[in-house]
Amino acid sequence: MQIAAIDLFCGAGGVSHGFKKAGMDVRLGIDNDPSFQETYRKNNNAEYLCGDIRWITADMIIEEAKIKRNQKLVISSCAPCQPFSLQNNKIKKEFDLRKDLGFELIRLLQEFKKKTIVPNAIFMENVPEFEKSPIWHAIDLELHKLGYSIVSGVVNFAAYGIPQNRKRFLAIARLGYDHFTFPEETHGPGKRPYVTVSEAFAGLRRINAGDECATIPNHKTRALSAINLKRISIVPKNGGSRAAFPDELILDCHKSFNGHTDVYGRMSSDQPSPTITTRCISITNGRFGHPHEDRGISLREAARLQTFPDNFIFYGENLEKNCKMIGNAVPVRGAEIFGLFIKDIILSG
Prior knowledge:
Number of strands: 7
Distance between the termini: 14 Å
Order of helices and strands: EHEHEHEHHEHEEHHHHHH
Helix content: 25-40%
CATH architecture of the domain at 4-188 and 331-347: 3-Layer(aba) Sandwich
Strand order of the largest sheet: 3-2-1-4-5-7-6
CATH class of the domain at 4-188 and 331-347: Alpha Beta
Low-confidence stretches: 85-92
Radius of gyration: 21 Å
Oligomer: single chain
């Protein structure tokens, strides 16, 4: 029997696409942003339920995804990570409703149980700081109460062949009480070489800042002001930083502050990229300069670093929304690897 999958907080569908590549039958993605719908549906051939997860019920999911009582089922729950990030914690918000969203998984599992539908496995992803949060410890306890064994920890996706240093907290819960571990890492010291930026960008056409390639979907870059074009042209190729700026090009905010040194930096072509974020095509928001060309990376280059295939098209003309879809995603290849692992532990159990 094919394993069905439901993707909570699905975004554009990085997990969904990876699970499909792993041979799962992805039935439904759920998110609260209507601008993601076209991208999700067209690329994943699955339904998209748009709404606040706090108002979504198990009955709605069962109906939309056509889940039967004897159906083997996996649920992915990658709740918003921003409340737990180090950067966001510096803001010291007193209250953030998103911090409660992780508990919606437990509510839905309890509702499923009343319908005598118990998912065989759960997949979760978040920022590394989530591992030490009281919210994760509470979710972990509730999952154990519901009959799941859990493996969790922080992994770097680069160690699984993704061309990006992306450390994330992962948790896999399997129905039944037994011991299991994450799949073995495949890349790094003593293993296969890390996949690099140049390997990820291979075959893409050269374009200028503000241009869009007519033949490669989403190979589109953000325009740069004259002064920022001058700045990026001065940054040394292949890994250089803004330390090369002459005095007249140094921003006032950087003259008395030595932090955020990646800003205006270039990626190194012979290494995995830095973590792709929701501002991944802006040179003013991180080391997102192209290794050799005088521009920020394109949407397609960012998508490749997240291992989206070139036939996965991000719809809509809003660059910020496209960046959000790409930057918030679980790398497709990573989702495929862990999806294959989940399939194996379900079918062998």
